[in-house]
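User: Fold this one for me? It's Alpha/beta hydrolase.
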Amino acid sequence: MSETSETSETNEWQLTRTFRSTSGAVRWDSLGPPGQDPVVLLHGTPFSSYVWRAVARALARRHQVYVWDMPGYGASAKSAGQDVSLAAQGRVFTELLAHWDLAEPLVVAHDFGGAVALRAHLLHGARYRALALVDPVALAPWGSPFFRLVGEHAEVFEQLPPALHRALVREYVSSASSPGLHPAVLDQLVRPWLGDLGQAAFYRQIAQADQLHTDEVQDRYGEIAVPALVCWGQDDTWIPAAKGRELAARIPGARLETIAGAGHLVSEDAPAELTAVLAAFLQRPGNGPFRSRA
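Assistant: Here's what I get for Alpha/beta hydrolase.
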């Protein structure tokens, strides 16, 4: 893709609708024909629905695809004292499903979004027709040394000069990709975390990232009874692929698919490969053979 087309695509990704959640205004949108099988995409941290743009547009050929920015992320509300914890996000996702009137959607969740989808399902009774987890935060221990350092000293990092903060966030986000991110993509992923509001929000979401929120549910993964796919970037340096194998073994009947050449941000590193895997799973989540390439 040329630099011009990538920049144009970046500028075209807009969420046009708003839902007033218990953790602030959530920006969301839907793609594809209304009435088709619904698919909901959940992003992770420190990202936004933007990382799903290519996958969402491809899946929208056969599905009605719902995308949203979690409170405190992307285009959604950011405010001092805001609860952006995994516990809060799980509740907000449950609220959104009710707002959308989706009884049993197909759910695809990346990174922290995986923990959000798992908590909503196991703790809040959210029902899914199938669940695909892409490099999810799901099993302890998680969080890099950098992530833990920032979480323990968020109030110090919040005071970084803007230029240093920008450089730190760019380096951190870049490390989620194995082959490297297009400059326009990196700019888009970093932009929500800039300025006074964005800088405070960046460190707030890390400070509230408590492993207790996955400890609460990880011993219950054996209760998941819907068709499940665990998908992992083979070159993920944030969460090693071994965690994917462990997670798939904990979920009854889960299928494991690894994607070569992709890091943690699989939807950016290998969007075509990921779309093919997800499309095949979503079209027949509980039926027919599905070859695992673990």
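One thing worth pointing out: Residues 153 and 207 are 8 Å apart (CA to CA).
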